[in-house]
Amino acid sequence: MDKNGKTTIRDIADACGVTIATISRAINHQSGLREELRNHILQYIETVGWSANSLKNRFLLSGNADKNVLILCNSWTLNGGGKDTLQETLSLLVSRLEGDGIIPMVVFGQNLPVLERCIEHPPYAVVLLTGSPLFFDALQELRKRGVRVCAGYANLECSQVCACVRTDYEQGVVDALALLRKAGCSRPGVFAGLSAAEHPVDPEHISDLPTRLIVRKLVEMLPDFDPKRDVLGDCFGHPQKLRTLLAEQTYDGWIISGNAIAQCFLTEAEKLKLRVPEKLPVVLFGSEPNQFDPLTRLCRFTSRADEIAEALYAKVMGPQFPEPEEILLPCRRRDGSVPLGRRRRRGTSDQEGAK
Predict the structure, then answer these.
(1) What is the pLDDT of residues 141-178, one digit of tens each?
(2) Are residues 87 and 203 both part of a single domain?
(3) Of 9, 23, 105, 349, which has the highest C-beta tally within 10 A?
(4) Which CATH number covers residue 195?
(5) Residue 101 domain-assigned (yes or no)
(6) In this structure, is residue 1 part of a structural domain?
């Protein structure tokens, strides 16, 4: 520790059993480092809170004093990954900046104290791949100091204080409903992650932004849609209520938010010998699964990670100082390997349904 008792980069290196140069590569998201080692270092840094206390030194490590760019993420960004995910957006944005000779600093967690520290040592630009109303005062102060600020995957209110790029889930819902209606669905349900809750207590406070936007649009479009009844949570992987609804065929189609949630849905449907999506039409809002994943059977609406990264890059490096605005990018639709089956009304014979 230094004379003030604060953790130094040497302390971090010693604790992780690596060199200072390795720490620099990890925090600046540079190549040449095993992913498991990078994750270990970043998780340790978040634990000790070094990102907030050593920001000036970390800017010096970036190798570009004129245009140092800070990218802030949640710690869960370290998990998962794949096509059309937040992790892909991060990777593409970093590569785009590195192509211009800029080595961005990527900080996982400790977002608010880092932003407050930035006010003392303003970078050239701050990109948030997260968002919270708690950040707004710091973001406004940074903009006053000439810092370029933009956000992706942030909550809706972020567009009040900075340029905000997000996926147009609302139009995606319009397209998804059109597909379900074409398949004969008249009453869709929503299956999503709601923590331990079976139904949202307040739909406007659903923590997951895509789910919240999907539900909001369904309320707008379907007069009989009641989120407190028609939006169902997985209850941390224990979806007893889903089993009941599937068995009773309460809904003739489903919109699912999230890949892990969709896996849970398919598992429960399989137990009941329900053929999805041939006999039970389902549309997924999530990321692109690998080619051997059962989710490839489903029609999917995903974010355009490449276009989000490019839009954020344009705001950071463009000739104009970015102003607060909301930039909507359309969902990318991918048809499933199995077409949506057409639902028959109850009491309709197979011969009538085939007409």
Answers:
(1) 999 999 999 999 887 788 999 999 999 999 999 999 99
(2) no
(3) 23
(4) 3.40.50.2300
(5) yes
(6) no
